[in-house]
Write a structure and sequence with these properties.
The protein has three helices and five strands, in the order E-E-E-H-E-E-H-H. It is α+β, with helices and mostly antiparallel strands.
């Protein structure tokens, strides 16, 4: 069983908390805050996309399910920025004025084209 604590917490969403993996800095562990649905849905969808031979270059990969002191966890690749720091959310990046709005529009358009070209549907 892997032990997680507040010092490893990256962020919390509506359904899950995300922790940095305690022994591998390139991984994160998502733990459900209520009934588990989202991580299982992600795992199954990534399995489906791999079967369909989609290019998943820009998608964080699912690694495995593990037991933690906070319940079942799901291990994913951890997204890092160009300086190898844990990547900020788009909202935080914009709020901290680390990117110009015109650049955001350009990057979102590139992401949209990538997702369309690979027939990848995103939930959030």
């Amino acid at each position: 069983m892997l032990s997680l604590d507040e010092s490893l917490l990256i962020g919390t969403g509506r359904d899950r908390a995300c922790y940095q993996h305690p022994t591998n800095p390139n991984l994160c562990i998502k733990v459900a805050l209520k009934a588990e649905k989202q991580s299982i849905r992600e795992r199954n969808y990534l399995k489906y996309l791999k079967k369909k031979k989609r290019d998943l270059t820009y998608i964080s990969q699912y690694i495995e399910a593990i037991d933690t002191n906070l319940g079942k966890g799901h291990v994913f690749e951890l997204v890092r920025d160009e300086k190898n720091n844990i990547a900020s959310t788009l909202k935080t990046t914009i709020q901290n004025k680390k990117i110009q709005y015109s650049k955001v529009e350009e990057l979102i358009e590139r992401l949209k084209k990538y997702l369309y070209s690979q027939n990848i549907c995103v939930y959030d």
